[in-house]
Amino acid sequence: MGNKTSQKVLLELLKDRDRWVSGNEIADSLGVTRETIWKNINLLKKRGHQIQSQKNLGYKYESSSKLDEVVINFYKNKSVDHVAVEEQVDSTQMYAKNYLATHQVEKAFAVISEQQTQGYGRRGRSFYSPKEQGLYFSIVIPKPTFEINQVGLITTGVAYVIAQTFKDFFPEREFKLKWVNDILMNRRKVAGIITEAITEVESASTQAFVIGVGINLTTPEFPEELQQKAGAIVAKNEPNIDRNLIAAQLINTIVDNWQNYLDGSFLSEYRRMSIVIGKPVTLQVGTKQVKGIATDINEYGNIVVKLDDGQVKAFNNGEITKVNLDW
């Protein structure tokens, strides 16, 4: 009963997050004793929830140092079926794809984990995912109404709305976009995106899209090979941030904008935030290297490059391995 009661107490606090709520008020609402409320408040505090307590005023919820399924699902929109929270997974992408293989999915859902042991990004590159320092999640969009050849608009669209959500929470920071899937701050990568299509072999149609997002939120240190490339959004000495609220808002925004990505309405803003347009770039496309000046992100979300031989070509896949970050 303690666990279920503590969840109910937590929900009562979340409903009235902007004001003090007395223990008697919560007790009356749940039909339990005042002592039960006190015990469960202490239990929530032990689990990492910051809850203010003040005599004659009661309790006020602040945030949590840990990801919490009750909190994230309280803030999720109706467009998202459920958000599962795990302590540790190999990768949220693998978790989501395994879930799809054994369940019938009719509505968008997400999984988020405190830690990944085998987190990965594009081209199978590992994504450093230390415990309780980032946000690592995957969203499943079942039965998409568009084709896999439109995935350029999906990845660029998701990158754009994530950067916009970051600006809502961290308005004093400046975020930039590196085609196709990286978000940067202070010339360091703070977030990456991977989009994978799950196809049905029999019908050769797309069963679902799985969007993986890895964010370095408070990561204080990185392995040596990443120290010059990766950075965190929030510094060590800054006030506590509510990872649950940020996670819920990101998931809501990505899913709610799903139908808007294909119209390309975000592209003018994406271009404004791009660090590659007008810059010399080296693009890895399969086993080939392409060099030239990035001149545009076109209406399909593809990068347009004026090659060294004067040709102008658009690329819908590949990875920019080198760009002059003089911005």
From TrEMBL:
Keywords (A to Z) from UniProt: ATP-binding, Biotin, DNA-binding, Ligase, Nucleotide-binding, Repressor, Transcription, Transcription regulation
Cellular-component GO terms for this entry: cytoplasm
InterPro entries the record matches: aa-tRNA-synth_II/BPL/LPL, Bifunct_BirA, Biotin_CoA_COase_ligase, BPL_C, BPL_LPL_catalytic, HTH_11, Transcriptional_repressor_C, WH-like_DNA-bd_sf
Ranges annotated as DNA-binding: 23-42
EC number: 6.3.4.15
SUPFAM superfamilies assigned to the protein according to its UniProt record, in alphabetical order: C-terminal domain of transcriptional repressors, Class II aaRS and biotin synthetases, Winged helix' DNA-binding domain
Residues that bind biotin: 116, 189
Catalytic activities: biotin + L-lysyl-[protein] + ATP = N(6)-biotinyl-L-lysyl-[protein] + AMP + diphosphate + H(+)
Pfam families: BPL_C (PF02237), BPL_LplA_LipB (PF03099), HTH_11 (PF08279)
Gene Ontology terms, MF aspect: ATP binding; biotin--[biotin carboxyl-carrier protein] ligase activity; DNA binding; transferase activity
Transcription regulation keyword on record: yes
Enzyme class: ligase
Stored PANTHER family: BIOTIN PROTEIN LIGASE (PTHR12835), BIOTIN--PROTEIN LIGASE (PTHR12835:SF5)
Function: Acts both as a biotin--[acetyl-CoA-carboxylase] ligase and a repressor.
Family: Belongs to the biotin--protein ligase family.
Protein name per UniProt: Bifunctional ligase/repressor BirA
Taxonomic path: Bacteria, Bacillati, Bacillota, Bacilli, Lactobacillales
Name of the encoding gene: birA
